[in-house]
């Protein structure tokens, strides 16, 4: 809900913003959104690391150590955010006058906007740290209550400002004010959740070592992941054509929205894994891990099946026949890759939650040459379809590595492949069958039969407690806890 609600508002707000601001000013606004998002990496992963360390302390019953730890981390995050602000302030003139092709008439206004925007960077980074504290305490309803208004105001705020001013400076000031209010809201929520923060103000240099160790490796992953995600578009533009980028990027952006599902799950799972790691409760971690993988698969697979089966028809209806001919094969391969990637997010959360972000970071670094090599060969032999195949192969390799690492960290007695390969083979068979060139009526019938078979298999995959949950959906009374199966039975199931 926290991620989807702003997207729905954006669908209606963006056309109005383009109409009111004009294409050039709207381009500046999108750059402003991007700058705030990208420069938030100046927390160097400390926000995520703070979630891990606070969850560890809660799991070890060492809450008395949290105030100094939290204040030390927030102080370091604020200093790093301030450094990011100084970088933007010093580079704003170069960005506006050299790097970006901004119309001459808009340059003074854009430069002032960037100067103001720089002050948002420490605010955003501190908010990330405060959010990490609340995530460690599993306060996700509260975090969503803060996130939704901010996300909506990101798009609605400029529209409100434009009713009395056409200046981009006024729009950026409004966005800065929203970020500041959000930061204050996070801070007040932390004070309410941890009243001891009022009296434990202090700075301990000794606490920074573990925080920076975790955060540094997480930053490596955060910087490498966008390279792995977006490098294919740059190479398509360089080796094929800019037009081909549109045929590739459009289906990618469409199917990539499915990652909202696992990313929403990872919010509560990451601190839970960290707490279980601190308690050495590997059995509970394995239960959380395989249930999360199962739920993501059960949600995403039918969407993937429908996408693979009806990609040509959907793209033809949406963008026309010429676009569908180029993009439908790409969409089919990317849909399979996204299904795999959605499940690997769980393994990445466990690896990081167990305090080993270096494993994920090293995997990502090692995948860069593999991806670049397969991407080059794929583009050379098959064009943008080869790029989609290369991307899917890369995320599949990443999933295999992360699943293996997660199984070892949680002392899983069963090899990961024993659980994953049967479902993978069944998935591949169903997806392959749905790609044959049947008439539309026959295709609908085949897919309907596959979905019925999927529903039967999905029911068999649920344990006793999960079946009770499904059967009682929509009822007002809670599920009795006595229906829950024992932990050992759930694990063996």
Helix coverage percent of residues?
A: over 70%
Provide the gyration radius in Å.
24 Å
Largest sheet data: none
* Record field, number of beta strands: 0
Oligomer: single chain
Name the structural class: mainly alpha
Low-confidence stretches: 481-493
- Percent of residues in β-strands: under 5%
- Coarse morphology: globular
Reading the helices and strands in chain order gives HHHHHHHHHHHHHHHHHHH
Mean pLDDT: 78
Helical run tally:
19
Tally of individual domains: 2
Intertermini distance: 31 Å
Structure explained in plain terms:
This protein is mainly α and 493 residues long. It folds into two domains: 4-203, no CATH class; 212-433, no CATH class. It contains 19 helices and no strands. Helix 11 (260-279) packs antiparallel against helix 12. The longest helix has 38 residues, at 282-319. The chain is globular and about 65 Å long. The two termini are 31 Å apart. The relative contact order is 0.09.
């Amino acid at each position: 809900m926290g991620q989807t609600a702003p997207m729905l508002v954006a669908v209606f707000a963006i056309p109005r913003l383009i109409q009111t601001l004009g294409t050039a000013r709207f381009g500046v606004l999108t750059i402003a959104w991007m700058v705030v998002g990208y420069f938030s990496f100046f927390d160097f992963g400390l926000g995520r690391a703070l979630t891990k360390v606070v969850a560890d302390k809660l799991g070890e019953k060492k809450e008395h150590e949290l105030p100094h730890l939290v204040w030390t981390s927030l102080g370091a995050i604020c200093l790093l955010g301030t450094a990011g602000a100084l970088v933007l302030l010093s580079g704003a003139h170069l960005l506006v006058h050299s790097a970006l092709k901004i119309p001459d008439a808009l340059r003074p206004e854009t430069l002032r906007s960037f100067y103001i925007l720089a002050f948002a960077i420490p605010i955003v980074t501190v908010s990330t740290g405060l959010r990490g504290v609340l995530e460690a305490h599993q306060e996700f309803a509260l975090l969503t209550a803060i996130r939704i208004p901010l996300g909506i105001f990101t798009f609605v705020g400029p529209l409100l400002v434009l009713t009395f001013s056409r200046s981009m400076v006024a729009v950026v000031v409004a966005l800065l004010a929203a970020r500041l209010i959000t930061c204050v809201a996070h801070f007040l929520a932390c004070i309410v959740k941890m009243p001891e923060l009022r009296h434990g103000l202090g700075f301990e240099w000794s606490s920074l070592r573990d925080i920076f160790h975790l955060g540094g490796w997480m930053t490596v992953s955060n910087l490498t992941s966008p390279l792995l995600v977006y490098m294919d578009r740059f190479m398509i533009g360089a080796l094929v054509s800019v037009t081909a980028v549109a045929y590739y990027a459009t289906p990618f952006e469409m199917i990539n929205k499915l990652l909202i599902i696992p990313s929403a799950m990872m919010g509560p799972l990451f601190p839970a894994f960290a707490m279980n790691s601190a308690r050495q409760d590997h059995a509970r971690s394995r239960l959380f891990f395989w249930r999360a993988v199962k739920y993501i698969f059960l949600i995403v697979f039918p969407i993937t099946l429908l996408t693979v089966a009806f990609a040509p028809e959907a793209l033809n209806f949406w963008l026309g026949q010429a676009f569908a001919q180029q993009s439908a094969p790409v969409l089919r391969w990317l849909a399979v890759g996204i299904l795999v990637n959605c499940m690997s997010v769980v393994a990445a959360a466990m690896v990081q939650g167990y305090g080993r972000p270096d494993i994920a970071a090293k995997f990502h670094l090692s995948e860069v040459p593999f991806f670049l090599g397969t991407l080059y060969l794929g583009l050379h032999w098959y064009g943008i379809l080869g790029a989609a195949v290369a991307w899917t192969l890369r995320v599949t390799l990443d999933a295999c590595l992360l699943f293996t690492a997660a199984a070892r960290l949680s002392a899983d007695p069963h090899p990961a492949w024993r659980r994953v390969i049967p479902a993978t083979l069944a998935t591949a068979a169903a997806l392959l069958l749905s790609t044959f060139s049947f008439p539309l009526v026959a295709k609908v019938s085949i897919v309907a039969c596959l979905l019925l078979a999927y529903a039967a298999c999905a029911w068999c995959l649920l344990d006793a407690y999960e079946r009770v949950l499904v059967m009682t959906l929509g009822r007002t009374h809670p599920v009795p806890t006595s229906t829950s199966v024992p932990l050992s039975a759930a694990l063996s199931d």
